[in-house]
Specification:
alpha/beta; Metallo-beta-lactamase, Chain A; Rossmann fold; 6-stranded parallel beta sheet; 23% strand; binds MU-OXO-diiron
């Protein structure tokens, strides 16, 4: 029944869109859905590269059968075992009992561990080549992009890199599949959010993978999430390259928590100070009203970060503390930092935020502001000064880098 989208002469897109899942990994909200991409290669032998979430397993099988037209499926190549891609393995084994499951040692261990299935497997080594006939598939082990078993598969004939999660993004594929068929703005934004929240801890493995693949002359990237990158493949690689080196754009994110408005007014004032000093963009997030995945994405994107918190239970505002844990666990590097806060009877927030910046080895400006109760003129002026100081440090660092 399905007319699958053709990527090149022998290669078909058989992935699916998930517009039902509310949170990816039950953690990160999906505002525009997500795609689970799988690809079918038709040659003397047939091969499927990755599967999809089990909730869409029957659709995947229908799509594959529409294309095979009675032929058998010979190989399943496993680039990544996270269940959004491996979830349909057991179902495929039922429909295609002769299927040979191809993966590295760690992936095949996980097939057994997650799905408890036996049957034919082919254990491959790094850079090994599997021939399907006209198509030679070469495997590149890229551990920790995003799990230890992750690898990429390169079709030497079509110059296609099947990259697993790498170069992927959130967002369902609405109608089109290849980048030039889609309006890309929302995918670029979702690439930052996907990277920051899902891959962000693994910057160093991403760098290793990019270096390892540098000699591979791929012309198309088929990731497991988001568009097939053809015309814009270099932009996708560049974004991952920059993010995995924690290289950021000019701009400042202000994140604050506020119970009764004092810290919020301070945030507004700091933002004004930044703007007066010529900084753009200045992005202000109320941590209570914005999802942490969006804030984290902006912190990966921009070089300046300023945090404001009231003192709460002798510590930080709880939502801000959650954000800080996410930043710490990902080891975000090279940010310029400032902080402010308020308290009703005893201040602790600015001390805690300063310790956080020290722990992260972020460059922190000298000026901090901590107000007791309502914001008053002296500290209002110091909030402007804090904005000016962060702006100066950003501009100085930018000039040194240029
Ligand atoms: Fe899309 Fe790491 O799985």
């Amino acid at each position: 029944m399905f007319h699958n989208r053709q990527i090149t002469q022998d290669i078909y897109y058989v992935g699916v869109n998930d517009r039902q899942k509310v949170k990816f990994e039950n953690l990160v909200p999906l505002y525009n859905g997500v795609s689970y991409n799988a690809y079918l290669v038709l040659d003397e032998k047939t091969a499927l590269i990755d599967t999809v979430d089990i909730h869409f397993g029957e659709i995947l099988v229908d799509k594959i059968q529409s294309q095979l037209q009675g032929r058998d499926l010979d190989y399943l190549i496993i680039n990544h075992m996270e269940p959004d891609h491996s979830g349909s393995i057991r179902l495929l084994r039922k429909y295609f009992p002769n299927l040979v499951i191809v993966g590295n040692e760690r992936a095949l261990d996980m097939v057994e561990g997650f799905y408890g299935i036996g049957g034919a497997t082919l254990k491959i080594q790094d850079e090994q080549i599997l021939s399907l006939g006209r198509h030679q598939l070469q495997f590149f082990l890229t551990p920790m992009v995003h799990w230890p078993e992750t690898m990429m598969t390169y079709d030497m004939k079509e110059k296609i890199l099947f990259s697993g999660d790498a170069f992927g993004c959130f967002g369902s594929l609405d109608g089109g599949v290849i980048d030039t068929e889609l309006e890309l703005d929302r995918y670029w934004e979702e690439m930052y959010r996907y990277y920051a929240n899902i891959i962000g801890k693994y910057g160093s493995p991403v760098q290793k993978a990019i270096k390892k693949l540098a000699p591979v002359p791929f012309e198309i990237i088929c990731s497991t999430h988001g568009p097939v990158w053809k015309a814009y493949r270099q932009k996708a690689v560049d974004i991952y390259d920059r993010l995995s080196r924690f290289e950021a754009e000019e701009g400042v994110v202000i994140v604050y928590g506020s119970m009764y408005g004092t810290t919020e007014l301070m945030a507004e004032t700091v933002a004004q100070g930044l703007s007066e000093a010529g900084i753009k963009p200045v992005i202000v997030h109320n941590v209570s009203n914005q999802d942490l995945s969006v804030i984290l994405s902006d912190i990966y994107k921009y070089r300046g970060c300023i945090m404001g918190s009231p003192t709460y239970n002798n510590g930080l505002f709880p939502e801000l503390e959650d954000l800080i844990k996410k930043i710490e666990s990902r080891g975000v590097k090279n940010r310029i930092f400032g902080c402010f806060g308020s308290y009703s009877w005893s201040g602790a927030a600015v001390k805690n935020l300063s310790e956080f910046a020290h722990h992260m080895s972020w460059k922190m400006v000298e000026q901090t502001v901590e107000e007791k109760q309502g914001l008053k003129k002296d500290n209002y002026e110091l909030c402007l000064k804090l904005g000016h100081q962060v702006a100066s440090l950003l501009i100085d660092t930018q000039q040194k880098n240029n």
